[in-house]
Design brief:
Helix 5 packs across helix 7. The chain is of the alpha/beta class and 332 residues long. The relative contact order is 0.13. The chain is 29% helix and 18% strand. It holds the Pfam family 2-Hacid_dh_C.
Length: 332
């Protein structure tokens, strides 16, 4: 007697870790998989049976605490470009594949950075402040054409920033893991160990690097002292790239001329932070990449990658868990 034919393979189970809000629509995901939405309290119970974990709440630090001692989903996807909150030892050492949402934020962040450069050069934040005080005070402003911008971070976001700034007339260079000349987006790229030398020549220093052991606290008092007194620091990467107390001290002492900060060590930024009231600082609430439609785009990136998995094609945006970002190939 012939053995019974195997039954149909059930679709994968995707656990979606939500936060204060849920994804806008998961119809494309539900067409490919069984979907279970959970909050942080239910995550530990949901993970052992999950095939995939979709970390929609990219602020969470609950995944590490909930990760099962053995097993766990074979694939974890996060709805952000940064993956630093996922790279805890148990996940790094596991065979679980990690992917991110690379591509959603590149151009919006590049546009935002260009806006910040213009705002700083033209003192737009000062103009708004004076308008609120009904004060008519004429000032001269700066040109951005010919100014020198140093982009720290040579991934897709850093490259988009480089292209946007170069298109506006700035002379762009970069800092990354590997030195190279004549990069199509960033011009001369300096190695990370020569960051201090590169800082000395820049009018605008833009931080767009991922948070790794190599980049944490890389802008400290010594690095700030290498910058020009007329230079500005723009951070759209991670708050932990900068030693915040050192930056406050440098701004107060006039070591650098100003800063535009979209990310902070602790978020939301505490109301007691002196950064709020500094006239040479622009503070924004981690919004540089959040252009209209970004939530839908995040779901689309995951759904397209889920289709790759269901159809047996390589996943895209695969993170090198040792490096902390998507590697050169980015597929698996």
């Amino acid at each position: 007697m012939d053995a019974a034919a195997p039954g149909p393979v059930p679709p994968p189970l995707v656990v979606v870790l939500t936060g204060d809000d849920a994804p806008p629509s998961l119809r494309a995901v539900e067409a490919l998989a069984r979907v279970r939405l959970v909050g942080e309290p239910d995550l530990a119970a949901a993970l052992p049976g999950a095939d995939v974990l979709f970390v929609w709440d990219f602020w969470t630090e609950a995944v590490a605490a909930a990760w099962p001692p053995s097993g766990g989903p074979g694939w974890v996807h996060i709805a952000s470009a940064g993956v630093d909150r996922l790279l805890f030892p148990a996940l790094v050492e596991s065979g679980t594949v990690v992917t991110n949402s690379r591509g959603v934020f590149d151009e919006p962040i590049a546009e935002y950075v260009l806006g910040l450069v213009i705002a700083l050069a033209k003192d737009l934040h000062g103009t708004v402040r004076l308008q609120g005080e009904r004060r008519w005070r004429h000032r001269e402003t700066e040109r951005i054409t010919g100014a020198r911008a140093l982009v720290v971070g040579t991934g897709p976001i850093g490259r988009a920033i480089g292209r946007r700034l170069a298109g506006a007339g700035l002379a762009v260079s970069g800092v990354g893991r590997t030195a190279r000349a004549a990069d199509p987006d960033l011009g001369t790229v300096h190695p990370m160990e020569r960051l201090g030398e590169a800082l000395a020549d820049a009018d605008y220093v833009v931080l767009a690097a991922p948070l790794t052991d190599a980049t944490r606290d890389m802008v400290d008092a010594a690095a700030l002292a290498r910058m020009r007194p007329s230079a500005r620091l723009i951070n759209v990467g991670r708050g932990q790239l900068v030693v915040e107390d050192d930056l406050v001290a440098a701004l107060r002492a006039g070591v650098i001329a100003g800063a535009a900060l979209d990310v902070f060590v602790d978020e939301p930024l505490a109301a007691s932070s002196p950064l709020w009231e500094m006239p040479n600082v622009i503070v924004s609430p981690h919004m540089s990449g959040d252009a209209t439609g970004w939530r839908e785009a995040l779901v689309q990136v995951f759904a397209e990658n889920l289709a790759c998995r269901v159809e047996g094609r390589p996943l895209r945006n695969v993170v090198d868990k040792r490096l902390g970002y998507v590697g050169s190939r980015g597929v698996q």
